[in-house]
Fold this sequence. Notes:
By secondary structure, this protein is mainly α. The chain has two domains: 1-59, Homeodomain-like (Arc Repressor Mutant, subunit A); 68-207. 78% of the residues lie in helices and 2% in strands. The chain has nine helices and two strands; from the N terminus they run H-H-H-H-H-H-H-H-E-E-H. The protein has a two-stranded antiparallel sheet with strand order 1-2. The chain starts with a helix and ends with a helix. The mean pLDDT is 89.
Amino acid sequence: MTDQAALAKPQTRDRARTEEAIIAAARDVLADQGFQGFGINAIARRAGCDKQLLYRYYGGLDGLADAIGNDVANGLGARLTAFAGEGTPESYGALMEKLMLGFVSVLRADPLLQRIIAWEISEPSAMTSRFAAARGLVLQRWVEKQRGTLTPPANVDAAAINAVLIAAAQHLVLSATAVGGFAGIDLVSDEQWERIRRSIGQLVRGVY
Length: 208
């Protein structure tokens, strides 16, 4: 091994550790202060590094936002895969039921993702659009990988129906966090969420 190669490995490890610290700091700032507080100086202070490193590694705030958006979205995809488990669904409807139930489960357990979705709706901006686009791409790829040759029934507008189902799942979770329920249904207890899960299954099976 040359001296140059020997030096490169520690430098690579140092950069990887620094990037991990920056991503973690950016997530913390986003969770604590929202997109209005999401700035280079605040993130550099939280990460304990020179702000010039953020420009060097990510090209600025937009590049860092893309990195965080991808990190959050990829985390969603990984947890959906873990929820889905092994095996291929026997039908398109079974796949969509698994996706919707997994999405509810993952979203309920992820306060940061909940806040990001809420901000995308209440404070739309170019930056929130980056997060939405990253999440949409991960969900699209997840479905494409899982579905294989499965197709929805004929004469069913699957894209529109899936959008309605995902929107409903998002709103139920956000309402549960914000006010404890929706439409007179208490969404604090696991028993009530089991009621929601059963209803999601009935809706999906009724359509597909």
